[in-house]
Amino acid sequence: MTDPLLGLGVVELVEALGAARQTVAAAESLTAGLFTAAVASVPGSSAVLRGGLVVYATDLKATLAGVDPDRLASDGPVSESTAVALALGARTRCGADWGIGLTGVAGPSEQDGHPVGTVFLGIAGPDGTECVPLALGGERWEIRTTAVATAVSRLRDRVVERAAR
How far apart are CA 13 and CA 165, in angstroms? Predict the structure, then answer.
């Protein structure tokens, strides 16, 4: 049986990280560990995957991932600043070259004024941070897997681009 997560381009991400001798960690809210599970599904991923934090509850974003509680109170758990802080927290706390932060609304209803499908992807790496805002459609599973596929693709592109310099 083929793992459906392997279809997200994660094999290519693991290969790119391995070739660059770099590692990744994630702090995941909306995806609840799906990114980390996808990376771990690839044979040999132990060379590149440092770990992950599932921070589904808002308070855990602060206590586990190091998101500033004042920032969480002002910007909310679903925001660009939270996604970037999650990525930085994963990178720092897990000792990885790259950090991924995923937060958003998978449904069934809006959260704090954000419609279903709102996702913020934070990426922190040796060359800085970025936030990718996404407006995704579909049911919960599709939103979550599309968020992971986007994280995999964007990180792979950054790793490859950085290695080419």
Answer: 18
Token pair 């968020």 is at which residue? 147
Name the average pLDDT for the chain: 95
Place of tokens 């920032």: 71
Number of alpha carbons in the 13 Å side-chain half-sphere of residue 7: 6
**Residue 3 CA from chain centroid, whole number:** 20
Nearest to 61 by CA among 39, 40, 84, 38: 84
Q: Which residues contact 84 (CB under 8 A, 6 or more apart)?
A: 101, 122, 124, 129, 130, 131
d(CA 69, CA 53): 17
How confident is residue 10, by pLDDT bands cut at 50, 70 and 90?
very high
Q: Phi first, then psi: give them for residue 53, nearest 5 degrees.
A: -120, 125
Which residues share a beta bridge with 135?
118
Token pair in block for residue 104: 């958003």
Which residue shows structure tokens 């986007």?
150
Neighbours of 47 (CB within 10 A): 11
What is the full DSSP assignment across 21-39? T--EEEEESTTTTHHHHHH
Would the pTM of this model clear 0.90, i.e. be above it?
yes
